[in-house]
Amino acid sequence: MSTEQITAKMTYATIPDPRPEAIVIHCSDPRFQAAFEQFLEHELHLEKGQYVPIVVGGGGGVLAHPEQLPKEFKFLKDRLEHYRRVFPSVRRIVLINHEGCRYYDSIKTKVLSFVGSFLKPAPDHAREDLSLVTRVFQHFLSHLGYTVELYYARFANAERTKVVFEKVGN
Ligand SMILES: [Zn+2]
């Protein structure tokens, strides 16, 4: 076997000079990855390379609670500010929360214990929190100059094999 054969590797295409127009923050839950990508392409007309994905447990939900989850908020804020410099073409930010988010359940329990509440998180708190995100952006992230779009992925059948995406807020 020649050296060339040993080192031969498959190659994969890159997008050498992307001009992303959006940052998209969504959860890393493997059940939803294909649906998120298809939604972005089919309904928001964002193809790969046209957006900067930030895929993290709980999605942008932590942005609703900067005081209660300061480290997680800073993690996302730092990245948003970094991408603002690196990709000046970005104009908007898309946040997608989803039904049945296990990470979200855990952070919400943390938030509720912080405020001394014995309440259990509401079943659709991931959706309710999206409206808080708009206010947080106005207070803490307005310097980015992004418009904010919020979506909620809700199960569309009892078997939980399909989701629909609802626009939340304005
Ligand atoms: Zn999730």
Structure overview:
There is one protein chain. Helix 2 (33-42) links the parallel strand 1 and strand 2 (51-55). The chain has a 5-stranded mixed β-sheet with strand order 2-1-3-4-5. The model has no long low-confidence stretch (mean pLDDT 88). The protein has one domain (18-168): Beta-carbonic Anhydrase, Chain A (3-Layer(aba) Sandwich), CATH 3.40.1050. With 170 residues, it is α/β, with parallel strands linked by helices. 36% of the residues lie in helices and 19% in strands. Zinc ion (ZN) binds next to helix 4.
What would you report as the Rg, rounded to the nearest angstrom?
A: 18 Å
Structural class: alpha/beta
Q: Judging by the overall fold, what is the CATH architecture? A: 3-Layer(aba) Sandwich
* First-last Cα distance: 63 Å
- Could you report the average pLDDT, rounded to the nearest whole number? 88
